[in-house]
Specification:
By secondary structure, this protein is of the alpha+beta class. The protein has 2 domains: about 40 residues; about 190 residues, OmpA-like domain (60s Ribosomal Protein L30, Chain: A, 2-Layer Sandwich). The chain is built from 7 helices and 5 strands, in the order ααααββαβαββα. It has a 5-stranded mixed sheet with strand order 1-2-5-3-4. The longest helix is centred in the N-terminal third of the chain and has 23 residues.
C-alpha cells in the first residue's frame, strides 16, 4: 500500500524585521542635527559684535592666515610699500578708504582727521559732544574707538614707518588737591592707544615715542573747553627708502629693536 508524501507548509510570522529600515534613519538624523547646529551658529553670529563677525568671516576667507604674507597678492605690505614724502598721500587715501568700510560708527568716523604735515601723516581722533573715543575722564577706550584703532593698527602695521602717539586734553581742571590731572590723563590715553594697537598689528619696535601734552597744545585756543581739544594723535613719520629700517625689511631680516616707548617729559608741568 502506497503512502502519500506529506506536504510541509512554511509560514512566515509577521512583524518588522531588523533589516527592514536599515541605517537610513541614522543618516537622516545626522543631517537634522547638522542643520540645527548650523542654524544655532548663524543665530549666534547675528547677535555677536562686529569684531567677532569679522574674525569668523576672516577665518573662512583665509583659513591658513597667510594672505598678508610676502609673496601673496596682498597689497601694501612693508616689503612693497615704503611711505615717503612722495607717496604719503597714497597712504592717507588707503586709510580713508578702509575707514569708510567700517559700519555702524559713522558718528566717530567723521571725527577722524588726517593731515599731511612736514613731520608725516597726522591722524587725529577728536572727541565730540555726541561721540567719544575714550570714556569720560579716564583712559578706557570705547567700543567704537577700539574698532577704529584696531583698523588703523592693521593698516599701519603693514608699513615700516615709525609712529609717534600724542595725548591731549581740554582745559577743564580736575578737583583741587587731586593727585590725578590732565597730564596723567593725556599720557594714559596715548599709552592705551599704543597698547591696543600693538595687540592688533603695530609692531613692538614701530612706536618710537609716547607724549602727553595735557592742555598745553589746544586745538582751539579760543575755546579751551571745546571737546575737540581732547584728542589722541598718531603721527606716521616719513621714511627714506635708504633707511636701515627699510632695508632690513626688504632683506627679510629682523629690524633692530627700537628703544622702548617712554612717556615724554612734556608731562611735567611748566
Amino acid at each position: 500500500m502506497s503512502t502519500k508524501p506529506s506536504i510541509i507548509v512554511i509560514k512566515k510570522k509577521g512583524g518588522h524585521g531588523g533589516g527592514h529600515h536599515g541605517g537610513a534613519w541614522k543618516v537622516a538624523y545626522a543631517d537634522f542635527v547638522t542643520a540645527m547646529m548650523s542654524l544655532f551658529i548663524v543665530l549666534w553670529l547675528m547677535n555677536s559684535s562686529k569684531k567677532v563677525q569679522e574674525a569668523v568671516g576672516g577665518y573662512f576667507r583665509d583659513p591658513s592666515g597667510t594672505s598678508d604674507k610676502v609673496g601673496t597678492n596682498h597689497q601694501g605690505t612693508a616689503d612693497n610699500f615704503v611711505v615717503t614724502k612722495d607717496n604719503m598721500a597714497q597712504l592717507k587715501t588707503q586709510l580713508q578708504q578702509a575707514m569708510g568700510q567700517l559700519p555702524d560708527i559713522d558718528a566717530l568716523k567723521k571725527h577722524v582727521e588726517m593731515t599731511i604735515t612736514p613731520d608725516g601723516l597726522r591722524i587725529e581722533l577728536l572727541e565730540a559732544k555726541e561721540s567719544e573715543f575714550f570714556d569720560s575722564g579716564n583712559s578706557q577706550v570705547t567700543s567704537g574707538g577700539q574698532e577704529i584703532l584696531v583698523l588703523l593698527a592693521q593698516e599701519l602695521g603693514k608699513i615700516p614707518n615709525r609712529i609717534a602717539i600724542e595725548g591731549h586734553t581740554d582745559a577743564k581742571p580736575y578737583a583741587p588737591g587731586s593727585s590725578y590731572g590732565n597730564w596723567e590723563l593725556s599720557v594714559e590715553r596715548a599709552n592705551s592707544a599704543r597698547r591696543l594697537m600693538q595687540q592688533h598689528g603695530i609692531r613692538a619696535d614701530q612706536v618710537m615715542q609716547i607724549k602727553g601734552f595735557a592742555d598745553q597744545r589746544l586745538r582751539k585756543p579760543d575755546a579751551p573747553m571745546d571737546p575737540s581739544n581732547r584728542r589722541v594723535s598718531l603721527i606716521v613719520e616719513y621714511l627714506q627708502k635708504s633707511d636701515d629700517f627699510s632695508d632690513s625689511h626688504a632683506s627679510g631680516s629682523d629690524a633692530p629693536a627700537a628703544p622702548a616707548p617712554s612717556e615724554s617729559s612734556a608731562a611735567e608741568r611748566k
